Structure formats: C-alpha cells, structure tokens
Amino acid sequence: MKLNLNIEPLSNWAPVSNGPLIISGPCSAETEEQLLATARLLKQTGKVHVLRAGIWKPRTRPGEFEGIGAVGLEWLNKAKAETGFPIAVEVANAKHVEEALAAKVDILWIGARSTVNPFTVQEIADALKGVDIPVMVKNPINPDLSLWIGALERINGAGITKIAAIHRGFSSFEKTAFRNEPMWDLAINLKTLLPELPILNDPSHICGSRELIPFISQKALDLDMQGLMIEAHIDPTVAWTDAKQQVTPAALSEIIDGFILRKAESKNPEFTDKLAGLREKIDKIDDQIFQKLAERMKVVEQIGEFKRDNDVTILQVSRWDEILQKRVSYGSVLNLDKDFSAKILELIHNESIRRQTAIMNSAKADLG
Ligand SMILES: O=C(O)C(=O)C[C@]1(C(=O)O)C=C[C@@H](O)C=C1
C-alpha cells in the first residue's frame, strides 16, 4: 500500500547538493553570545547547511528551563545575517507558528511531544494554511506509525508540500543504551509507504549521549536517510538542556568527516549483473521457504482437525517449548541469531493457533 501525499523533493527547498543535509545548533538558545558563537564555529566547519535552536522547550516537569522564548528569534536572525545559515525552530502551537513566521524563520519542525497529539498538530496545520514554508515532523514519542503519518497528512492537508520526517527514536519502558529506542523498522515502514518523503535522522535524541552519535548517524545514512539533525553547543558541558547529547562544532566536524557515504544504487554493470544474480538466488530460496511454510500449515490443519475431533486443546505448551528450544539451538549452529529464530517461530506458532482456532469453530468430522 502506498499513501498519496503531495511532497516536494528535499533538493527543492534544502540547501544541499550531494551528501546528507546537516542541521545543527544548540538544543536550546540560551544567550545571544552562546548562539552566535556556536553558529560561527558551525559555519567555519563548512559542513553544516541549516542552523537550529530550541526557543520554546517542552519539559517533562515544570520549573525547568522552558526556553528563552521569542527573543531567541532575534538572536537566530542575527546568526543568520552573519553566517548566511537558514534558520529552523520547533513550534508547538499556533502562537509559535505566528511568531516564527513573523520572524521569517526558514524551516519549522514539530517535536515528538506534539506529533503525539492530533489536536496540537491540527492547530499548527491550521496556522500554516496558505503559507509556503518547509515543515519537518518528528516521530511521536510512542512507536505509533499511524500518528506519525497522521501528522504528515495534517500538515500536507494545510497545503504544505515541503515536508520531511525526522526519526528521533521512541520512548520505551525498558532501559536500554539509547535515550529513545531507534526502532528502525518504523522509519523503514514509513519510507515504504511514502517513498518520496525525505526522512532525516536525529541521532542526538536517539542516543542521549554523544559517544553513540557517529554509530547511529552512519546507520541512518546506510538506511538511505537524507539528512541528520545533530545538536551542537559551543561548550556542551555547561549547556542548560541536554548537556550529555550535545557536541562541540569541532566534534561535529570530525563526526561528519568519519561518514562513509553510500549511494542508493550503482550503475556499474559488473555490480548490477552480480546483484541481479544474487537476487535471483534469494527469490528461489524465498519460494522454497514459502512452499515449506505452506506444507507445514497443511500438517498443522490436520493436527487441528484431529484435536477438534478428540476434544484436545490447541495450545500444547510442552510441545511448543520443545520446538522453540530445539529449533533455536539448531538455528544458532547454522549461524542464525537466537532472537531472530525465536521471532520467526513465534510468528509461525501464532499462525498455527489462528488456523486451528478456525478449525475448532467448524463442525466435527463424522467419526462414524
Ligand atoms: O503439535 C501440535 O499440537 C500442534 O498443533 C502444532 C503446533 C505447531 O505449530 O508446531 C501448534 C500449536 C501447539 O501449541 C504446538 C505446536
């Protein structure tokens, strides 16, 4: 299934030719000096295309620094006049949109805590009606692809065609190495549904600590994401917000130098021939896997009928457990990841249960 949105290519509105779009700047604009000094050093790297700064900050608890407010727009404009950077800010309500538009901000983004709320997104969309400005939509904090798509649809519905998504990871109950779990499959699903949608990655919010940023950035580029939003601060150690995840402009420059830029495809005939041959092999193997799965399901259905006719339950925990143990260890001998094997078996077992449930609900065979 493909979705139908009217989306312009990134090159129509972002100052980028080849390579990823790099958006950088402090998590929060704190003082005029901090913002201008950071912007100057970012400019000196020659590797940044857009200057960002948070001026309205949604905070979990009241009493924390909630952003410098509209005065930050003046500082951003000073930075823009000096460096030539287009400027980007987060907006979370209609008033923010009005103030940002009045200050001639070049690019807006909607944060994860706003994307989660359709009322908020609609309010922002309504405030944008008739305006031609690029809008980037971060994923919602919870891993809900429909909410993310819904927000993109609302913004597009307001007539905004310069749209991008920003993948910033998802809150999870479990504590992991990441501040926000990447859950890459959601971004991949979004790209599959909307191939023309530019997707950028925000490694700062995924990682929560600067050490992991190069790894996550490279992975995003390898998944064909078209840009990165990386927070940078003149002195991250004294940053008022998100100190651990910000990098200095010099560190940002090193991170960017370390990227390996891979292209979406190669026109080299040797490469394309070899790839076509390998893909043919995969097609044959996939056919075999599906034939075997269909065969297995036929046997599962026979067992289902047998159980129905003898009033035996569908779920057989000890048999299921035996299958899981045996196949997962067999899989690891074959160099298959244990989690991967377990996930596939779970999918198969769920399908067995679904089919046997349908059989249980059908009439018993005449046992004569
Ligand atoms: O062995 C059975 O009893 C089956 O119905 C097959 C099967 C399976 O798919 O392997 C399905 C359900 C049971 O919980 C255990 C195993």
Give the topology, please.
Elements: E1 21-25, H1 32-45, E2 50-52, H2 71-83, E3 87-90, H3 94-102, E4 107-110, H4 112-115, H5 118-127, E5 135-138, H6 145-157, E6 163-167, H7 184-193, E7 199-201, H8 203-207, H9 213-222, E8 227-231, H10 249-257, H11 269-309, H12 317-333, H13 338-360
Parallel strand pairs: 1-2, 1-8, 2-3, 3-4, 4-5, 5-6, 6-7, 7-8
The structure holds prephenic acid.
| Average pLDDT figure | 96
Which fold name fills CATH's third level, the topology of the largest domain?
TIM Barrel
Tell the overall outline. elongated
Helix and strand pattern: EHEHEHEHHEHEHEHHEHHHH
Helical proportion?
40-55%
Major beta sheet, strand line-up: 1-2-3-4-5-6-7-8
User: So how many helices?
Assistant: 13
Identify the CATH architecture of the largest domain.
Alpha-Beta Barrel
The whole-angstrom Rg is 26 Å
Distance between the termini: 48 Å
Content-based structural category: alpha/beta
Bound molecules: prephenic acid
Q: Tell me the number of strands.
A: 8
CATH superfamily grouping of the largest domain: Aldolase class I
Instruction: Estimate the strand proportion.
Output: 5-15%
Enzyme class: isomerase
Pfam family, one: CM_2
EC number: 5.4.99.5
GO molecular function: chorismate mutase activity; transferase activity
Structure characterization notes:
With 368 residues, the chain is of the alpha/beta class. It folds into 2 domains: 10-257, Aldolase class I (TIM Barrel), CATH 3.20.20; 269-360, Chorismate Mutase Domain, subunit A, CATH 1.20.59. Helices cover 48% and strands 9% of the residues. The chain has an 8-stranded parallel barrel with strand order 1-2-3-4-5-6-7-8, surrounded by 5 helices. Helix 3 (94-102) runs parallel beside helix 5 (118-127). The relative contact order is 0.10. The model has no long low-confidence stretch (mean pLDDT 96). Prephenic acid is lined by residues 300, 303, 315-316, 319-320, 323, 349, 352-353. Residues 269-360 form the Chorismate mutase domain. InterPro entries: Aldolase_TIM, Chorismate_II_sf, Class-I_DAHP_synthase, CM_dom_sf, CM_II_prokaryot, DAHP1/KDSA. It holds the Pfam family CM_2.
